Amino acid sequence: MGETTILDYEAEAAHYDETRGGVPRAAAAADAVLRLLPPGTRTLLDLACGTGLVTERLARPGLAVYGADAAHAMLRTATGRLPGRAVRADARRLPLPDGTLDAVSAVWLLHLVPFAAEIVAEAARVLRPGGVLVTTVDKDAAHDVDSDIDAVLRPHRAPGAGSDRADRVTAHAAAHGLVPAPGTTFTGHGQGTTPRRTAEKLRGGYYASWFRGTPDDVDALCAALAGLPDQDRPRADPVYRLACYVRRG
Question: Which long-range contacts (CB under 8 A, 24 or more apart) does 217-225 make?
């Protein structure tokens, strides 16, 4: 379980929104991205846009918003929300010339992949001077809300293991002419987990990006989780970090 698990997003598409906080979570993410866009931003590409639930909420008068995703099923849903503005593309090889965009967003992407550096490099390539990359960082850390569930899991967490660790992303950005700017945070509405759900995800390998243990450890942790009170009461929602990087001229 030491490798990052990439979910099958072709299969996930049908129920992705309802299991990921739906509109409240998407609206919070979109509002946070918009707070970090410089005045005069005219074009934005949302990488790994998924079903387009966040992406459609980024649209504003004077701001042309586009989405890109590599999964066919996700893109089919996104196309309904972003008619004519969603494209199938690998975030490492965007079908755009250099210096095309004012902004690139990547919400809940970099923690999923072992090639975060390539995505940051490609974002830098397509941004014009003064353009911004806005991306979530430290996602795994955000899910430790100091609950009783976290007390059970914490001894098996690999601290700072994520490919979206803020210092790593900042280093990737610096290598491609992107300098840090003030970021922000937002609440992951509907993402507070329960002991029962956590055990199910642990058995399903959902936590491979940070879990360090054996199958026997999984059994022991699930038994400990089963002993917690309020098996179906969600604990606190995570608070996610959005980092912002500006393309040098």
Answer: 217/156, 221/152, 221/153, 221/156, 224/152, 225/149, 225/152, 225/195, 225/196, 225/198, 225/199
